[in-house]
Every structure is written in structure tokens, then in C-alpha cells.
Amino acid sequence: MTSMVTNNEQVMADASAWLARLQRAEVTEGDGLAFDAWLAAAPAHGVAYKRALAVWQEFESCADEVLAELAADAARPPARSGTRRWVIGAGGSAIAAGLAVAILPGLLAQPATQTYATGKGEHRKIALADGSVVDLNAETRLTVRFTRAERQVVLADGQAIFDVAHNKDRPFTVAAADRIVRVVGTQFDVRNRQGDLTVTVAAGKVQVRPASASASGHAFLLTPGQRLEIGRTGVESLAAVDPEEAMGWRSGRLVYRAEPLANVVADLNRQFVQQIEISDPELAKTPITGFIVLDEQSAVMARLSLMLPVRSIPSDRGLLLLRK
Amino acid sequence: MAPSGPSETPGEDGPLIRAFFEKRESLLLFLAARTRCMATAEDLIQDLYLKIAALDGGTDVRAPSALLYRMAANILVDHVRSSQRSSRRNSDWRQETRTVMGGEDVVDEPAADEVLAAKQRVRLLADAVAELPLQMRRAFRLHKLEGLSQAQTAQAMGVSVKMIEQHIQAAIRNLSQRLRS
User: Fold this and answer.
1) ipTM
2) Mean pLDDT of all residues in chain A?
3) Looking at the partner chain, which of B93, B134, B179 has a beta carbon nearest the beta carbon of A65?
4) Rounded distance between C-alpha atoms, residue A201 and residue A181, angstroms
5) 8-state DSSP, A168
6) For residue A165, what is the DSSP state?
7) Which CATH number fits the domain B15-87, given the four candidates 1.10.1740, 2.120.10, 1.10.3470, 3.30.450?
């Protein structure tokens, strides 16, 4: 019985492989003859192929509708209507947020917390129920929980730009590393990579403070054009930046000012499948100033070699970056 | 002595025509790999028939199957280069859903429940795509839904063409299993 199932799965895999192979730019008579022989080998082959073909053709015939549906998904508010109803319907502003959260699972079939994650090279725009919009950079994980008193986001790892809908009664907070970024309505970028936190403000005022009273660190009130960097060791530094530059990744542009090459490569490795390695530690420290347009990896690598005396060679794991 | 019966292939048909009729079903499935419905594949096989009918008799064919598949492969590749994609993009949504739902060319307006069923089906298809693993989903979306070639998809994703074909194969398998019934 098990071998039968396995066999069916193999036939389905073969049928899928044939259908994929017949999509090549060049299809030869050899492909045709091999396909013919495969079909003739067992009736099950034709059955499996027709099944795969039906699905394949169905997608072909309504590709645009499916694309539109997928695009609508990306823009759809993540919180279910139930969450929203609860948020609006709850009365009595004295109820503590903690208590509200405790009640929530009992009231709703849907969980109140939504998690969003992006993979390598993936960017995603999400519209939250309150009208705020979040742009996620590659390899980012973020959870959203709206309580009556607060709009809470946890940026577990990654980078995101927040366009926060104004609501002074319901602050918007982003917890990242061991800091809380708190705003009323504004646009800002938060980056949390392995505990190195950066907050850049484009509009409005943003407060950054330690997550708990016992935690070390200071509270900051950031204004547009300011960037706060907090290293994983707790070193805090404030700088003036062009917010457009800091948020350039949203439109496929990475802007750097004296950024070590290792950090630039780490960013690129989140955008492309082919991973870049630097073997030379001195080279890794080379400061980079300039911008990188994220289109194709080969083009990016070519431009990088114009900015720096480096060249890339293929390696087992991807690309190895060497001094010229 | 006895004349050949009516079910036999008429004597004047050459080897190419005979091979064509023997392999018609397989050729149809071959050509259907890039069409959006079986009716279009039938049109293509009709083209193939006309081409070989024009050829047959005049040429000595040693390997009729190879010639058939060479011609079929050319038709297959030309078909994608032709206006299939653009016609798809310009076509009416309801007409599309009729193809999806019925496979028959109905001219009058579809019933409201048919439109609803088609919308639900699209929803189901989109959900199935959304649940594919990331890289597979990207490859499927770019290649199948947005109509890029395998090479263009590979370029956009920064991976090899071979990798794209593997992603597409895995996506087809996954979607076929998911959307069965």
C-alpha cells in the first residue's frame, strides 16, 4: 500500500517535471520523443500528466485574476473584522491593556496577534486595520497586536518602515531589541538585525526608550531627520540623516555612508539567493559610501566592483568577494 | 485478395499521416503544455496536421515520429511567441471564467451563480499559490502568472534557469495535489 502511494507520488512528480520541461525556451524533437515514450510506458503517466495539465491551464486562463487576488491579499488589513469590532466596541477606557488581552481570546475565534514574515529578497507592504501601512524589508519578522489602548508591534528581526495613522488616544509602539519605539502618528524606519537597532524618523516625533525600567539605556525623543543607533552592546549614538536615504530600500535602493563592506554584504545577502562571502577580514572593514540599486545580482556585483577594488568569483556556497 | 476494410487507414496515406494518427493523443498532450485550454491545443494539432498533409507523399520519411515531434516542438515554441499572452491580458474576465468553468464556448452572459463560483475558484487558486514556499511561489508567480520566460524568471530571481524549472516542477506538483477534486 505504501509503495503504491509512493509510486503514485513519483508518477505525479514525473508528470510535473515533464510539464515544467516543456516550458523551456527551446523544446526539441528529442524532448518530444522522450515525452512520447514516457506517456506510452504506463496509462498512469497520462492520467497524472492530464491532472497537472488541467491545473496548469487553469492558471493560464485566469492568471490575471489570480494575480489581482494575490495583490489584494497583500494590501488587505491583516486583522480580521472581528478584531476591529472588538476594538471599536470595547467601552470604558480604564480597562488596562493587559486585562483586555486576557479577555480577547475568549471573545474571538481569530487570534488577535498577526505575524508577518518575509524571506530572502522579499519585500511586502501590509495595511493594518487602523490605516497604518508597514513596509517590510527582506528577512523580517513582525507581529502586530492591536489592543484598545495601544497598537503594539514587535519587530523580532529585520527592518520595516512604518507609516502610522494618527490616533493620539491609541499610541503605536514598536518593540525591537530591548527598546520600545513609541509614536502617535508619523513615518519612521526601524531596523533590528541581530540586536543592532536603528530608528530613523521621516515625519512626526518618535520616542525610543528601554523596554523595561530595569533595562539600561536612555530615553530619546527623535525628530524628523534623526537617526538613533543602539548597538547590541548598548552603545547609543544619534546622527542627522536624510530619511529618504534610510528608507531607500523600499524602492530598491540601498544608501550607505561609510558603512563597512561586511554590513553591505549582509544586506545584499538578505536580498539575493546567491550568498556573498568575504574571506579577507581587512576587506570586510572597508567603508562604503554610495548607493546600490537592487535589480539583478549580477548587475549589482558588477557595480560593486566599480565602487571598490573587488571582484567576485563563484564558490561552493555562492560568491566569494576578493581584492582585485 | 480481400480489400482493406473501412476501419483501416486508407492506402494512399503516407507513413507520416499514419504516424500522426497513431500519436495524435500524445501530440495533443505535448502541444497542450503551453496552451490555456484543450481547445487551443486542438487548433494547434490541426495546424500540425495541415503541415504534415502538405509534406506527406512528397518526402521519404525514415523516422516519422521524430519529424512529427520536431514540427510539433516548433509549433509549441512559436505558439508562446505569438499573441497568446497579449490576447489573454486583453480578454474579458467573464469569457475567461467560462473557459475555466465550462470549457465550452458560450456566447451569452453567464449566470450570476457561475460568476460567483468562478470568483470562489480564483480565490482558491490564489490561496493555493499563497501557500507555496517562498522561492517556489516567486518562480511560479513570475513565470506562470506574469508570463516571464524561465530565463527571465531566473534573471529576476538571481538563480539558474535549471533552478527555476525545478521550482516550477515542484509548484505544479504541489498545486495539482492541493487543487485535486
Assistant:
1) 0.80
2) 79
3) B93
4) 11
5) T
6) P
7) 1.10.1740
